[in-house]
Design goal:
Order of helices and strands: EEHEHEHEHHHHHEHEH
CATH architecture: 3-Layer(aba) Sandwich
Number of strands: 7
CATH topology: Rossmann fold
Number of helices: 10
Strand content: 5-15%
Oligomer: single chain
Strand order of the largest sheet: 1-3-2-4-5-6-7
Shape: globular
Largest sheet: 7 strands, mixed
């Protein structure tokens, strides 16, 4: 299967590790191109961004609703082998669940960054919080899960993803590049069947959440950090799609500091 793997070369002296970014639900490698890839390349990191099968420009779109966490973990393993060397994995939302499942299945990494990630205990708690605090968004996401992205109220979903209305170019990218939902993998992330590794098998980990995340509450990010014995950062006024939001650097800078102090 042909998978999309973007590359942004390091600028200046190269750091001793490389970075592989794994996107969240319904998106692709494109979410990292605007801010994160140039930012970390400027710090000397070789950067890669993977589109999981069925997403972005990767093959498998016709079966996207059937792809499982095991399929996506295999995609990460493929990318890690292709990149080679010491690689830090950075997973957002669904991608964070995929990264954890990759480690559960024996995958190795120099470090892990979980950004607004599905927590190791599953999404049930987050779903209940969304239903209580934002029932309209909860109903829309349930509709997407059962019926697919076609006919979804993308305006309502976009409103839930950002701290404020995104600029026109981001709105355009969101509307034109969005993929259907990976239903099978999403259901696995509910947590009924464990998908995450035992804490002592996880490499050094950083958990980053956002204060105003309507998909993954900050409390779940804190629980993730407790489970893995990881450092935890909560971005003030941040929302779920932080890598595309106006305050994206408030998440990127703690990642850069953690990489410098902990990994490099």
């Amino acid at each position: 299967m042909n998978l999309e793997l973007l590359h942004k070369a390091a600028i200046g002296a190269k750091k001793p590790v490389k970075l592989l970014f794994v996107h969240g639900i319904c998106t692709g490698a494109w979410v990292w191109e605007r801010h994160f890839l140039p930012y970390f390349a400027g710090l000397g990191y070789e950067n890669y961004a993977l589109s999981l099968r069925g997403h972005g420009r990767s093959e498998g779109r016709e079966r996207i609703r059937q792809h499982t966490l095991a399929d996506f973990a295999a995609d990460v393993a493929w990318a890690m082998d292709r990149i080679g060397g010491r690689v830090v994995l950075l997973g957002h939302s669904l991608g964070g669940g995929v990264v954890q499942n990759y480690v559960q299945r024996g995958g190795k990494a120099a470090g892990i960054v979980l950004l607004c990630s599905a927590p190791p205990h599953g999404l049930l708690r987050a779903s209940v919080v969304m239903l209580a605090k934002d029932p309209a968004l909860a109903r829309e996401m349930s509709k997407v899960l059962h019926e697919g992205i076609r006919g979804a109220n993308l305006g309502l979903i976009e409103e839930g993803l950002f701290s404020e209305p995104p600029p026109p170019e981001v709105h355009r990218d969101f509307g034109s590049h969005i993929s259907d939902i990976a239903e099978a993998a999403s259901r696995e992330l509910s947590g009924w069947i464990p998908f995450a590794p035992l804490p002592w098998s996880m490499p050094r980990t950083l958990a980053i959440g956002c204060e105003n995340d309507r998909f993954i509450p900050a409390a779940d990010v804190r629980l993730t950090a407790i489970y893995y014995g990881a450092r935890c950062v909560i971005v003030p006024n941040g929302a779920h799609a932080i890598m595309l939001d106006r305050n994206w650097k408030d998440a990127a800078e703690p990642i850069a500091g953690w990489l410098s102090k902990t990994i490099n």
